[in-house]
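Support request, please re-run this one:
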Amino acid sequence: MSFSGEYEPSTWDWVAEQVAEYEASGGTKANTLRETGIPIIVFTTVGRKSGKVRKVPLMRVEHEGEYALVASKGGAPKHPGWFYNLEANPRIMMQDGPEPYETTVRQIEGDEYDTWWDRAVEVYAPYAEYKIKAGDRHIPVFVTAKPE
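Re-run finished. Output below.
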C-alpha cells in the first residue's frame, strides 16, 4: 500500500496543526492532547473514497507494543470518517515517537474489546462519558498488530 498520495489535512485547524508539528518534530512536540498532558499517537490511512492520505491523532492507548484506535468521535451518533477507511483497508502507518512504521489493524469485540476499552478509559476517562453519549452506537475499537 502506498501512503505517498496527496495528503489532505484535517478540516479542523487545530488537528491539522498538531499533526504537522508532531511529524516535523519527530513526535517531540504537539505530542499530547492540548493541555491535558495525555500522550497521543498519529496514524495514517488512505481515504476509501478519495484515495487521499489522511493523518489522525488519537489518545495513546498502548499495551505490550499494540495500540488501540478508539472510534469515539466524542460520543457522536456516527462513526468518525477514519473508521470507514480502516474498515475498507486495515493497512496504516503508525507513529508513536520519531519513526512511523507500517502495520495493520483489526476491529475487536467481546472480552478483548472489554479489556481494551478499560485500558482506554484508564488513559482518557472521558471515553466512559462518550460511550453513554453515543447511546445505541457501539464505539468501535481497532488494535494494531505488534511491530514486525
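The domain at 13-144 is CATH 2.30.110.10 (Pnp Oxidase; Chain A). The radius of gyration is 14 Å.
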